[in-house]
Give the backbone structure.
Amino acid sequence: MTLLNNKQPLAHEVVEDSNPSNNIDFQTIISRRLNRRSILKGGTGLTAAAFFGALPLVGCSDDDDSIPTKNNGNDAAIPAQGDLKRPETLKFTAVAHSTAETMSVAAGYKAEMILPLGTPLISGIDDWKDNREQSAESFEWRMGDNHDGMWFFGKKGTAYDAKASENGLLVMNHEYVNSSELSPFGYHVIQDKNAAPIFQNRRLASDVRREVNCHGVAVVEMKRRADGMGYEMVSNSKYNRRITSSTTTQLAGPVAGSDLVKTKFDPTGFQTRGINNNCGAGLSPWGTYLTTEENFLGVFARGQDASQLSAGQNYGRERYGATENFSGFEYLWHTPDAKDAKIVDEFSRWDMTATSASATDDYRNGFNTFGYITEIDPFDQNSMPQKRTALGRFAHENCAYAPVEQGKPVVFYMGDDARGEYIYKFVSKATWSNADIGGGLKAGDKYLNEGTLYVAIFNENGRGEWKALIHGQNGLDALNSELPFHGQDEVLVFARAAADAVGATKMDRPEWVSVSPITGEVYVTLTNNKYRGVRDDQPVSASNPRSYNTGGKARGNDNGHIIRWAEAGGDHAATSFDWDIYLFAAPNDLVAENLSQLNDSNDFSSPDGLYFDPRGVLWIQTDDGAYTDTSSCMLLAALPGNVSDGAIQTTSVGQQTRVGMPASNDNIKRFFVGPEGCEVTGITMTPDFKTLFINIQHPGNTWGAVAGGSTPRSATVMITREDGDVILAESFV
């Protein structure tokens, strides 16, 4: 029978929860650390002048409470044109809550929708039609779906220029698809209850092909408009490019050539097909794009094959959510009939079931070729994307580098977006050289293929440590009882299990990471946790001190928070750090739980996207389902202080916790509200600070639809000041 189902859950609504370890919760650690001595040592920390001025890097202090300073060196690929002074206060008028179909932006600004789903990147491709009849193949040259992380790469001539704003390449992720709004047939499933469990629901080849091509990355050349306001796409630019879930990619680093990634497609283990579920993004200091593979689990299926695999192999799969008879999320890319394939194994490659005697005769290892930071050189349209395996395999949300310094290692921070997962950093073996700016993928080979992957442990004394994930150290060897590690390739492919083994601290869905260019402190969004105070393994504690029931909803902490830390001595390669909680999200009228003193102008829920612009302004984006009866998802501007600049508070459940400097209309304000039903995500700014780009995912109603159409479309939003001045210009007056 044929089933038409337009109500299937969206991929972004599925939150993985596959950590069985008994590692101590971050929340428990915080509660233990808050002794009288640490409270007395916290204080308010900063004067107003220090808070709003050019702050030094702040590291982990020893008992003398000294605050070391250091020179940040150059900013490498970070835009560096214009006045880099941070505003002292935010002077724009805050945007009101809104649940309208339209978007709203601060007074004096203009927000325009550009580059929606289906936009042709070259001539000869028909414009998007509301009946969604465009071919699956055409999406190899169209904007994909659910725009996410992105970066604007300044371009001068044919080369990357971090200071150029007149012309540039806008590179962005396409995280997942809204199946029911992409195909002319809606979400079309053919049911066969007599088939094997993972094949009882089958999809059409054309629908799967369309979705495969809608994932990935788009590279779009942009030029400033003739009137000097905003940008327009350069149609038919040689740089315009799509990289999809069918594009051949290179495996680079310690996992390349490993038995763990050998497949029928490439028995040598050096290549795979596709990048997938690309969420947040990052920039490299040398000027390439770092895209992340997050919910890659959802496009794979696994049948009944446990008996053909070792206990360790089974554990390695299950640790990433791939249990037996797992059919994936709603994608079902493995299910179309083989006779409808246009390339060899077009659909069967998404089935990781071990069906043959050898891994090179099936796709049991295909799963292991996804979940990496992937480097793309947008200026070389013929280059092959590089999956940088040294940075580990997990549900990468984004990737942020610390300010680089000549002669020191390059450091990247990453979060694993799933309940109970971890925060990581990678420290390169090679030391930074300014000469590598503009070096493309060769520079990536130098800095990203060799180095040390660390995972964070938050200690009870208020400090933390980074534990190295190196084969042969810290129990990461063949004697490990849960998963024997026979080499560094296994440590990296099964980074989650390695992190379990070294005692990493379980966190609540670590999402975007951003590093302050002023203080060097690292910020991470923890979006929410509906199980806080509900499940035994998610107890209320100092780091997550709220478990509450509002509006008839189940108990839990629906609103989320942002944590931050300072590395010891201001050195990002250090193995210890000091930390606190920067900001708790909450509706302003939820008085007992509003620990950061948010008001009607700056309250929010479920922080997700996070971006420090080069001036030190922190931009916070939301992906919320808890506060949407009051306001759609939003973008806020903030001026944060430093670790330990707040005070100790006690919540309604009697839990003490340290909260950062209170919010006010001077230091955090709502700047933009998206259309009903959306997520606000992806953010970048031009080097001259005159244009801000953000992305809108899964909008409701008809936002983004063609004129007279009814199908909503994800799109990019381009924000400029009406007078052509820099973003937040009013705050410098």
